[in-house]
Specification:
The chain is about 60% helix and about 10% strand. By secondary structure, it is an alpha/beta fold. The strands form two sheets. The protein has a five-stranded mixed sheet with strand order 3-4-5-6-7, sandwiched between helices. Strand 6, helix 5 and strand 7 form a beta-alpha-beta unit. It is elongated, with a radius of gyration of 22 Å.
Length: about 400
């Protein structure tokens, strides 16, 4: 990387700015007090801000951009980011954006990194890809619109499902790892990833959900799938429930040619990562959250395997457990029977249905404040277990990465 431009000009987030200005930093790193200094002096500028605020920030500092510079962003939703660049940057500024498709605390090596060449010469594009190569990620070239559609397909509904689980557990005043029916197998993934999501900042998920039109549509469909399936369970409509679930499974797994492929996750892997003591006998669960996910994909015409090259570790885990359920006919048949005849999880499913609809409404209304409030209330409830969940979740993610 010695042939790349230096020094590195940075404008840290506000609460870190003053401490960094007074510290002795590594050679070649220059901290600025405002974005004007960065914009006027830099050849390549990356806006690492929330999607919600990208327009405001670019409007403030974009006009000071150095002539002929390259500008990009790391937001999770590219439509507002590209619109902000086009609206506020001078015409001679080149635009090459990017997005790392993984969350905090995940090693970027071999993870997908989307690069978007929106308005740039080949020379400028090559410079950006060389700079980004320091992450060791797998670079994927996409248009901004395709990026938003794929991130909606692979992330938005996945996040909504886990957010809804956390909401339901809090509503029932449950710590699931303390309840034997939520320990072991598929339940381990649900618990670990739910806590992993809630241990992060709310805006990591809010921007992608609220500002991406495809995400809104998919989150709404997930809530509708949860509600429809729950009503069939309550009504005892076993035949109709079975037909709908198996039609969805055939579309997602048979049409994708996955029936003969090895499972992404095995029993041994699923049981290894538990936050509680695994019981000798498993408590059957109707897995409403998983059934609704596959139903949602079916209703939207999404084949999740089509986007594996741009999938996040969380999405691969979620796909792995849905595949595990639907590609084990005996287990799926058991789940259908439990869904209609067993009331053990009924109160949990009721709260989960409320939660899925609540998150969908929050996203549809475009209410960032409400999203933040809902998220942080549940975050504080589970906070004591975040360190352990992060450790176990990292181990789980490493295993799924080895297999995919």
């Amino acid at each position: 990387m010695s042939d790349l431009p230096s020094p590195l000009h940075v404008l840290p987030i506000y609460h870190l700015r003053r401490p960094l200005l007074t510290r002795s930093l590594a050679k070649g790193i220059v901290v600025f007090e405002d974005g004007y200094g960065v914009s006027r002096s830099s050849d390549y500028i990356i806006y690492c801000v929330e999607a919600e605020t990208i327009d405001k920030v670019v409007a403030e500092y974009g006009r000071a951009t150095k002539k002929g510079a390259i500008v990009g962003g790391q937001t999770s939703c590219k439509a507002p980011e590209i619109a902000a660049f086009e609206r506020h940057l001078p015409a001679d500024i080149e635009i090459v954006s990017c997005h790392s498709l993984h969350g905090p605390n995940v090693d970027p090596k071999d993870q997908p990194l989307v690069v978007i060449r929106h308005r740039a010469s080949q020379q400028s594009f090559d410079l950006v890809t060389r700079i980004l190569s320091c992450f060791g990620s797998k670079q994927v070239l996409l248009e901004a619109e395709a990026h938003d559609r794929i991130t909606a397909d692979t992330q938005a509904v996945t996040h909504a499902a886990f957010l809804s689980m956390g909401t339901a557990w809090r509503a029932n005043n449950q710590f699931p790892w303390e309840i034997t029916r939520y320990v072991g197998g598929i339940e381990n993934v649900k618990c670990n990833i739910t806590l992993r999501i809630y241990s992060n900042k709310w805006h990591v998920y809010a921007g992608l959900a609220i500002l991406n039109p495809d995400a809104k549509k998919q989150i709404r469909q997930y809530a509708e799938s949860v509600t429809d399936l729950f009503k069939l369970m309550l009504g005892g409509h076993k035949a109709e429930l079975e037909k709908r679930i198996k039609s969805a499974g055939d579309f997602v797994f048979t049409a994708a040619g996955r029936r003969g492929e090895p499972l992404l996750l095995s029993d041994e892997v699923l049981d290894r990562f538990s936050l509680g003591n695994v019981p000798k006998e498993r408590t059957p669960n109707n897995h409403l959250s998983l059934l609704a996910m596959v139903d949602c994909w079916w209703k939207l015409g999404i084949v999740p395997y089509d986007h594996m090259i741009c999938s996040t570790p969380l999405f691969r885990l979620w796909l792995g457990v849905t595949e595990y359920l639907f590609r084990k006919p005996g287990l799926l048949d058991e789940v259908i029977v439990i869904a209609v005849e067993d009331n053990t999880f009924r109160s949990d499913d009721l709260e989960f249905t409320f939660a899925a609809r609540g998150w969908s409404d929050c996203v549809s209304f475009g209410d960032f404040s409400s999203y933040q409030d809902r998220f942080e209330q549940i975050q504080s409830y589970f906070a004591p277990r975040f360190p352990e969940a992060t450790r176990v979740g990292n181990e789980m993610i490493n295993v799924i990465l080895e297999k995919t």
